[in-house]
Amino acid sequence: MADPDHDKVKERNDENQESDGGKKPQGQKPPSMMSRGAFGWIMVVALVVTVLLLASNVPQQAKEITWEQFYGLAETGQFEEAVTAHDTKIVGKIKPDAPGVAGEADNLLRQTVISPQSKNLRLHQLDQVGQDVKEKVDNSLLLPILLSWGPILFIVLLIYFFFIRPMRSGGAGGGMLGAFGRSRHKVVSKEHSTVRLNDVAGIEEAKDEVTEVIEFLKNPKKFQRLGGRVPRGVLLIGSPGCGKTLLAKAVAGEAEVPFFSISGSDFVEMFVGVGASRVRDLFKQAKESSPCIIFLDEIDAVGRKRGSGFNSGGHDEREQTLNAILVEMDGFESSDQVIVMAATNRADVLDPALIRPGRFDRQIQVPLPDVAGRFEILKVHAQKIKTGPDVDLEKVARGTPMFSGADLSAIINEAAIAATMQGKDFVEQTDLEEARDKVRWGRSRKSARLEEDEKKVIAYHEAGHAIVTHFDEDAEPLHKVTIIPRGRSLGATHMLPEKDKHILSRRQLLAYMRVSFGGRIAEEMFTGDQYNGTAGDIRQVTDIARAMITEYGMSERLGFRLYGADEGKNPWEQSDRPYSDETAQTIDQEIKAIIDRTYNEAKTIIETHRQQTDDLAQALIKYETLTSDEVQKVLDGEPLSRKTVSDLLAAEKKKKLEDEEKPGVTISPPEPDLPTGGAMPNPA
Known about the structure:
It contains 21 helices and 14 strands. The chain is α/β, with parallel strands linked by helices. Helix 10 links the parallel strand 9 and strand 10. Helix 17 crosses helix 18.
């Protein structure tokens, strides 16, 4: 037996299939809003044309004179044709050369007022002086009425079609302004919900929490048996790209219910009250389509704390929209079977009334994935492409700390594009490595040819970073070092953490500082000069040292106290400096002391391995990019077996000449397989 509620939901979803690429059913009439709007415009155009035509046909206004003057003109034969006699007036046109009208040549009409009783007498007098007269019966008053009331009628009809009629339709009808009150959500019907929980990886804890919502939508009586109430609202909190929207779609797909999605910014308009109207319209349609899921993306656009800013009046459009959301969520019944899910990366700015129990009372953290999570995400996306036998997704997962799910998806996609452009049959590990660096730091600038002296400085700079990274016990393992420009950097030393670190120790922070000093020390030691390329290293060292002293409490002299900005306070509530001048001087001394100590420690490492630093810089000049294994060979004094950059360029030039010598054949040489590099991450 057919379910009428199901048929009603399906019919409504078919009307909204524009959002998910579906086609409208055959025979479906166009929306009534378009027909009413078209009819209104036709009426407006017709009225305007009518008024213009009437205005163009208005006769020229005659100058009114007395009967004696009119009779005198007729007696002297000054009228050039027959005069017209109406019931209340007689109109005539005098000759242009008549006496006394030289300055009135633009208006030659004259009229005199008569009464119906004196009409016959006046006509007889005109006949006696030989003036031709033609009578005209005034049998229509339409023209004077239209001329008098036409503009008013036009304004009334305009107000009716564009203001009153949409308001009588509940604010969601046709017309130019009625459409503003309609919700701009997108609807994905259950037939088109293809996302499942298996498509979501790396956030297992969040997936476990939403299973209760899925079970409620599938079997609500199971919870009603013991009197339990499923949360009305689920708030997903996490960094951008972590999979909040994907998780909400997966819940709708698993529960096989319609999915209403809208962004928080779509509620706010320049007209006051439009946002609240859209909220009411959205929840009304959702209740009619229950069971379903409403997903409010970026809810912080309308859900910010009320009264926390400088411009927070009671008539603020954002606050009215928030109030409407709060009221609608309070109006839910347990039998409505409507779950409201929202996503934000700024949970700290949300209004307390929005996240209290009874509204968004279930908050699910969607964090950045760890190593295992990144590996699972990479496996999900790698199933869509062809991968080679040398692909090691676990290694890619280790080399992508703090990457979100969206970043990992971009890595797989960029690797597939790069392999396609190079004519490969499958994606290789080198493509994934290049895609990772491209997503994080930008495309490598292989066309940026550096001068030999600049190339030498950059090689010693990166060699200094690499030597300190290799010989410092507390530093992360070295992954590769390059002098190929990428993004804003001219070279990079890339480290590969063995595992994710959520906290950093004092020794690890000091190791990051020593690695940052390595570039400046090597430059000065081997070139005898200093360069501005170390600005980023100086900024990183200063940030780490200041954070250690003022925020992390890692100074014996200053102790366990916060001297930096308090993130829990608003900017206008914080003083410029919450400590004395003596304390500020002590902070500066402590920062300088920790910087000087780590600088000297890094200098000792490079001086101890001076020859190895020089060898590594020369190898970078030859090969431009070295992996960790190749760096180890250089430090051990072993030769490298692969071709240098000069060899690759020479081979490319030779192949190009051979192709040009072939008659009738033009082949574009492939781009030389030059290695690439990344940049050292900032731990501050």
